[in-house]
């Protein structure tokens, strides 16, 4: 694996009034790796991620994403990244094809490119028969796969996934992770948050956030050795419990 | 530019896909135009009229027959005493009481002078004033030498009769047809309300669904997003105007004396003002409900202070000054001037430039308050 840094975070902090959601975090993510960003609800994961994707201004500290400062070169950051939020965020009242056309279009793809990409995408996902169906009528698992593919339309260097598998069945989750692996093999960096500790095992490296700070950051195996436990689940419980 | 086209395409698809909204956008305004134009009239007709004839003479019957012949008055009943008539006024059965005194005919002939007493229900002061004028005209027509004593029922206003023959000539609407006056105004109201509500709800809807966050992580520029979002509603506004003008011309035979192109030119800029307001509301609301309430607040304020229903000239000075901030006021003024008076650009240049100023200022604020970053 190349050890080129693609995300560099230095002392990043976000305060809402008197509450510090993200407290002085620093970490690097390397090109092509699957980086798991874990933490309990309210630990500050989503806030940290929002700063990295340029929709939330850091209170202090700095972050470089794909080499661009998130504070000053926000638009360049946005060109280099894909994002899939935990809330399904495609248009329910548009068809699969229309959604792809719209998102491709606003990322600056040409009509011809969009046509080709759409064709490839629906074949890969096996959605040829429902391409003209409204997205709102699809099962959740399909929607998630579709929004992952749409987040990759413009071939971003990094893709941010915010709890991408929330609420889907184990089989679909597995398929989803196969898609993530396939994408990572192409060299795309994956930055993923999750609550499922079995998914954490699939990551190259994971960080665990507790109450706004990063408590641990290493490969899953190293973490298990360090805390002397059998699974990531136990690592997580140990860290979260230490705080309380 | 290409990005904007993609947004416009998406917006139009969503508008035409929403089967619940389509009739609201296209049918309801027309129904409103048809109904409101016929109903919202200031003409006072069917005045509830009663009389007390103490004279029972040829002259008194002749006077009453004048009222019977008028389409403005509806004779409810005749009473034998003032007390009885007053009671009916209290119950609301009648609004006007004409009392003809004893020896009315005799005084009229012998002394060339007679008194009549008229009582008018003046709870609605404006209506009472109009009724007063109608009654005076009939009595003056009956005999210019009859002196009328008009007692307004609630006050003791004593109105001196004026024996001047008036030959009114009504300019720009010589048949005094209220529809001619109201239809252009109501058309303004429809174009405004529809575009204001639709635009103010639109971006909030994306906020609620979570798609706005997805849009905000794309490299899309603020102005691209705003133009792409508002353009479809701008087109819709012009479509509504077209349909409304057609109905005004065909159904209500409202004259369009001025240039139609001028109306469109003005409307296209006016719509930018309304869409800008909608967008500002959208930016500052978190839910569609909130956006709806704020839009209603402004819509009602704008409409009541637009001169559409009550003339601006009769408002107190401070209120008149407030109307200067009201975009609808300018639109009502201009569309009436152009349609009914045949005004040209130089006649409307002052309100026109006010609207241009608002369009620039409000859309500037709209783009500025639209935040991609928190």
From TrEMBL, chain A:
One of its GO terms (molecular function) is ATP hydrolysis activity. Gene3D superfamilies: P-loop containing nucleotide triphosphate hydrolases. Residues 7-236 form the ABC transporter domain. InterPro entries: AAA+_ATPase (IPR003593), ABC_transporter-like_ATP-bd (IPR003439), P-loop_NTPase (IPR027417). Keywords: ATP-binding, Nucleotide-binding. This is ABC transporter ATP-binding protein. It comes from Flavobacterium cellulosilyticum.
Automatic annotation (TrEMBL), chain B:
PANTHER family: MEMBRANE COMPONENT OF ABC TRANSPORTER YHHJ-RELATED, MULTIDRUG ABC TRANSPORTER PERMEASE YBHS-RELATED. Keywords: Cell membrane, Membrane, Transmembrane, Transmembrane helix, Transport. The chain crosses the membrane at residues 21-40, 181-204, 225-250, 256-281, 293-312, 351-370. It is found in: Cell membrane. Residues 148-373 form the ABC transmembrane type-2 domain. This is ABC transporter permease. Belongs to the ABC-2 integral membrane protein family. One of its GO terms (cellular component) is plasma membrane. InterPro entries: ABC-2_transporter_component, ABC2_TM, ABC2_TM_bact-type. PROSITE patterns: ABC_TM2. It comes from Flavobacterium cellulosilyticum. It is a multi-pass membrane protein. One of its GO terms (molecular function) is ABC-type transporter activity.
